[in-house]
Amino acid sequence: MTSLTHIATPDGLAPGVNYSHVVWGTGRFIAISGQCALDEKGDVVGEGDPAAQARQVFENLRRCLQAAGATFDDVVKLTVFVTDTAYLPAIREAREGHLDSGRLPATSAVQVVSLFRPELLMEIEAFAVVADR
């Protein structure tokens, strides 16, 4: 059995807004490569539309987690790369459809100049911990 502990605000730190400062657990570690808004053929979904891209990214993350025997409940860390921080509200909205707001993972958000294809607006990677098989 996996047990994850979330500490939203450790003593002496300002409260985390939309993330937990610390998450830990025991079990099997899973690393999910950065996912972009690509469909199963490699075509961009939602060109120019951050909300559509965010939904596709979280769907791709869900599929990767499922392939590893995990769910979003097992995610301990997200790293978000965006070409414009103005896209963060769209990402938060898409995330709300997958993650429990009371048990949010540790999260970092980084604005980058570009991603590997110019029409991509974001990329998100995930780390998860699940029970040993």
Protein model, in words:
The chain has 133 residues and is of the alpha+beta class. The chain is built from two helices and six strands, in the order E-E-E-H-E-H-E-E. The protein has helices at residues 50-67, 88-96, and strands at residues 4-7, 22-25, 28-35, 75-82, 106-111, 122-130. The strands form two sheets. A four-stranded mixed sheet has the order 3-6-4-5. Strand 4, helix 2 and strand 5 (106-111) form a beta-alpha-beta unit. Helix 1 (50-67) packs across helix 2 (88-96). The longest helix has 18 residues, at 50-67. The chain is globular, with a radius of gyration of 15 Å. The chain starts with a strand and ends with a strand.
List the helices and strands and how they pair.
Elements: E1 4-7, E2 22-25, E3 28-35, H1 50-67, E4 75-82, H2 88-96, E5 106-111, E6 122-130
Parallel strand pairs: 4-5
Antiparallel strand pairs: 1-2, 3-6, 4-6
Largest sheet: 4 strands, mixed
Helix content: 10-25%
Structural class by SSE content: alpha+beta
Poorly predicted runs of 5 or more residues: none
- How far apart the termini lie comes to 9 Å
Categorize the overall geometry: globular
What is the averaged pLDDT score? Answer: 94
How would you spell out the order of helices and strands? EEEHEHEE
> Widest sheet: strand order?
3-6-4-5
Please, what is the oligomeric state?
Answer: single chain
Task: Work out the radius of gyration.
Answer: 15 Å
Tally of strands: 6
